Amino acid sequence: MSSVTVVWKGNCRSTDARARLLDCLHRLARLSDGYLRPTERPHLTVVGEEDALPRAKRCKRPNIELIDETRQGEILVSSDITDHPETLLARASEAGLPIRTGKDGHTKHIVLDAVRLHGIDFRLFDPRGLYPHDDRMSFVFIECPEHHFLDGRLVKITEEYGTTVLSCPSLRLKSYLEDWTDCLFSWVRFFLMGDLWWARHEDLQGYHDYRGVFEIVQTTRGSAEAEDATFDAVLSTFTQHAEHWRCEVQRTA
């Protein structure tokens, strides 16, 4: 079976909804981190040889990054953070913001000189470690009330030659957690972020079915309790998948 890239994007301007979402995702990140840590081993080096190590080993990215910062300098915001890039670019032009075409000749970027970012970016456990450069979930939000068309937008953060690039989050999977991502994103969309969109093989894959389940729980238990109980189920399902695949990898090693 071939791999699949899951992409997601959306807008959430409610500070309360974002806070509740990030609290829940932090629980998921800690759960994933607990599975990742036993598989990691320290890299031993000879004193004086640190500079000879590849940069990736000298500056390993943390499994969990809690983002709460203002970035300054040249910041490029990709138009792919929305389903309607032409509208986003038009609003940016009306606001007097520069637009730059990417090196590929197609991607358009809005240029900022400062931006406030808040959210979480974490590594998702996969015992096979198939895609070490494409195994993270980003739920980082732009806080930019002076430009409402950017405020609350979901992004991932990358660095390119000293420039901060904000683009559409994505994750690569293969035969593991694919259906589960539908469950997670459906939960986010139903309870906290109605503007969330994602695509795996199809747009909003699985949402129709999960929405029906969430509506039943919400009706019988109330909104607040349903939100908590169904997210507990999301975490439980993640644990089941992680345990199963960890055992499979150990069995076939």
How is this fold's topology laid out?
Layout: E1 4-9, H1 15-36, H2 55-58, E2 64-78, H3 85-94, E3 99-101, E4 108-123, E5 136-143, E6 154-160, E7 163-167, E8 170-173, H4 178-191, E9 197-199, H5 207-221, H6 223-252
Parallel strand pairs: 2-7
Antiparallel strand pairs: 1-8, 1-9, 2-4, 3-4, 4-5, 5-6, 6-7
Helix pairs in contact: 1-6, 4-5, 4-6, 5-6
Please explain how this structure is put together:
- This protein has 253 residues and is α+β, with helices and mostly antiparallel strands.
- The protein folds into 2 domains: 11-37 and 65-172, no CATH class; 177-253, no CATH class.
- Helix content is 38%, strand content 26%.
- It has helices at 15-36, 55-58, 85-94, 178-191, 207-221, 223-252, and strands spanning 4-9, 64-78, 99-101, 108-123, 136-143, 154-160, 163-167, 170-173, 197-199.
- The protein has a 5-stranded mixed barrel. A 3-stranded antiparallel beta sheet has the order 8-1-9, with helices on one face.
- Residues 41-58 have low confidence and may be disordered.
* Total of DSSP H or I helical runs spanning 4+ residues: 6
What order do the SSEs take from the amino end to the carboxyl end, as H and E?
A: EHHEHEEEEEEHEHH
Strand content: 25-35%
The number of domains is 2
Instruction: Give the fraction of residues assigned to helices.
Output: 25-40%
Major sheet attributes: 5 strands, mixed, barrel
